[in-house]
Design goal:
This protein has 511 residues and is α/β, with parallel strands linked by helices. It folds into three domains: 67 residues, Elongation Factor Tu (Ef-tu), domain 3 (Beta Barrel); 274 residues, 3-Layer(aba) Sandwich (Rossmann fold); 131 residues, Lysin (Up-down Bundle), CATH 1.20.150. 39% of the residues lie in helices and 17% in strands. It contains 16 helices and 16 strands. The strands form three sheets. Strands 8-12-11-13-14-10-15-16 form an eight-stranded mixed β-sheet, with helices on both faces. The protein has a six-stranded antiparallel beta barrel with strand order 1-2-5-4-3-6. The chain has a two-stranded antiparallel sheet with strand order 7-9. Helix 7 runs parallel beside helix 8, helix 10 crosses helix 11 and helix 12 packs across helix 13. The longest helix is centred in the last third of the chain and has 24 residues. The radius of gyration is 29 Å and the shape is elongated.
């Protein structure tokens, strides 16, 4: 009997060894902690000594959280869901992985939340892999200079405040001045330009985001775009991780060799969400009651935008962060932070917006630090005189308002400046290609609009665009290939513009 028992034990032992060797069964250590307290969007946990920064923690009811504060006695956790069902004393378990997001081509045309869950009722995502939302920015040695332009289709930006692929260009202004409209028009202009666009909505109203999505669908822009949404009704944790998640998705495309445009709308609400979380977690506040590391919050995000060298993929990630100013205060905490982080800014003036000068871009307060290095050469012969005449006009117009006596040359400069300002006006969702923009700006620099009444200048510009649609093919090829036009070619274009802008016809026509 003992012999049979010993034989049975030996067989059982061999079976267990075979199972372990064939990896059918393995033992895992599990760390289980306890929830100490919970408040709006955050919680405190004890009993997980080996937890790593930004690691996902799983609560009993399935809610996930991010280990944010790693204190000696407890862990401060940012919750990624509603906290209504959490109770002190409930179990908390480590997941062993940091917060991540699905990436891949399957995301194109989709609307997702900050965790990568679909919101568009188009089925589940079949993403190939997942990337951490927090990733180090690419080192300088792997970056290439910003040299290729990103055309917005907006005259005043493409000519005077050019944006390059891989640049970080800030869009700022007071509430309701057209910041989102400029960003969305830029997305629409990327049609058939091999550009992948990501619109990241942070803290926006659900109805406003729905309008943006419908606008993109109407213009067939979702086929090369995706939308990541964290609305104002979302928890502060979801608002906090939204831009980082969107950037990881963009980086995946960039490393595959694609050019990517990402819009953060807007980072003011992102800073507010981070401030709320920090104060609830009892982090020390700094200037203007913001935590001291609010600068690092956005710098480590925007540093990830770049243009890679060819041997590292050759793709680019262009960032257009949007922030909201209060009463045109550019020297407030968040605007000064982001102005110093980015490569330039497009400032939208509420005064110009109220006057109906749309887009309400203040050329004097807007700048691109990349400048002409990321601009097609054909613009360089136009933008210099255009900016100079417009700046002189703004100064002279101020004196003219006080009834100052003006000589004839000054009066002509003012009249030219008014027509320059009129040609820079542009309707929403009415993008102009490069050749159309150059035709209009050449004409205004040459004074071809000077004889026209100001009320008819904008319409005359559109008439000129429609007239040159299928003409001057060789000049168009030279412009798009990065070559400058010769003096003879410019004269040909101006002669044609004169024939189109016949003063008598435009004055007598009824627009």
């Amino acid at each position: 009997m003992n012999g049979l028992f010993q034989q049975y034990l030996q067989q059982a032992s061999q079976h267990i060894d075979n199972v372990l060797q064939n990896d059918h069964f393995s033992l895992h250590e599990r760390e289980i902690g306890r929830l100490i307290r919970v408040s709006s969007g955050v919680a405190s946990v004890s009993g997980l000594p080996n937890t790593k920064a930004m690691e996902l923690l799983r609560f009993e009811n399935g809610i996930m959280g991010i280990a944010f504060n790693l204190d000696p006695d407890e862990i401060g956790v940012i919750l990624l869901g509603e906290d209504t069902e959490l109770m002190a004393g409930s179990r908390v378990e480590r997941s062993g992985r940091v917060i991540d997001i699905p990436v891949g081509h399957a995301l194109l045309g989709r609307v997702i939340d900050s965790l990568g869950q679909p919101l568009d009722n188009s089925g589940s995502l079949q993403a190939g892999s997942r990337w951490p939302i927090e990733r180090d920015a690419r080192p300088i040695i792997e970056r290439a200079p910003v040299s290729a332009p990103l055309q917005t289709g907006i005259k005043v930006i493409d000519a005077l405040i050019p944006i390059g692929r891989g640049q970080r260009q800030l869009i700022l202004g007071d509430r309701q001045t057209g910041k989102t409209a400029i960003a969305i028009d830029t997305v629409l202009n990327q049609h058939d330009k091999n550009m992948i666009c990501i619109y990241c909505a942070i803290g926006q109203r659900g109805s406003a985001v729905a309008k943006v999505i419908q606008h993109l669908k109407k213009h067939d822009a979702l086929k090369y775009s995706m939308v990541l949404v964290a609305t104002g009704e979302s928890t502060p944790g979801l608002l906090y991780i939204a831009p980082y998640a969107a950037t990881s998705i963009g980086e995946w495309f960039m490393e595959q060799g694609h050019d990517v445009l990402i819009i953060y709308d807007d980072l003011t609400r992102h800073a507010h969400a981070y401030r709320e979380l920090s104060l609830l977690l009892r982090r020390p506040p700094g200037r203007e009651a913001y935590p001291g590391d609010i600068f690092y919050l956005h710098s480590r995000l925007l540093e990830r935008a770049t243009h890679l060298k060819q041997k590292y993929g050759g793709g680019s990630l262009t960032a257009l962060p949007i922030i909201e100013t209060q009463a045109q205060n550019l020297s407030a905490y968040i605007p000064t932070n982001l102005i110093s982080i980015t490569d330039g800014q497009v400032y939208l003036s509420p005064v110009l917006f109220q006057k109906g000068e749309l887009p309400a871009v203040d050329v004097g307060k807007s700048v691109s630090r990349v400048g002409g290095k990321a601009q097609l050469p054909s613009y360089l012969d136009i933008s210099g005189p255009l900016r100079l005449s417009y700046s002189q006009f703004e100064e002279l117009e101020t004196f003219a308002r006080f009834g100052t006596r003006l000589d004839e040359a000054t009066r002509q400069n003012i009249e030219r400046g008014r027509r320059v300002r009129e040609t820079l006006k542009q309707d929403e969702s009415r993008a102009l290609n490069v050749f159309e923009q150059i035709m209009i700006l050449l004409a205004v620099n040459a004074g071809l609009f000077d004889p026209l009444p100001i009320a008819k200048v904008k319409k005359a510009g559109l008439q000129l665009c429609s007239a040159v649609a299928d003409r001057f093919v060789s000049q168009q090829h030279k412009i798009y290939n990065g070559e400058r036009l010769t003096a003879e070619e410019k004269d040909q274009l101006l002669d044609f513009a004169r024939s189109v802008l016949r003063t008598e016809d435009l004055i007598t026509s009824r627009f």
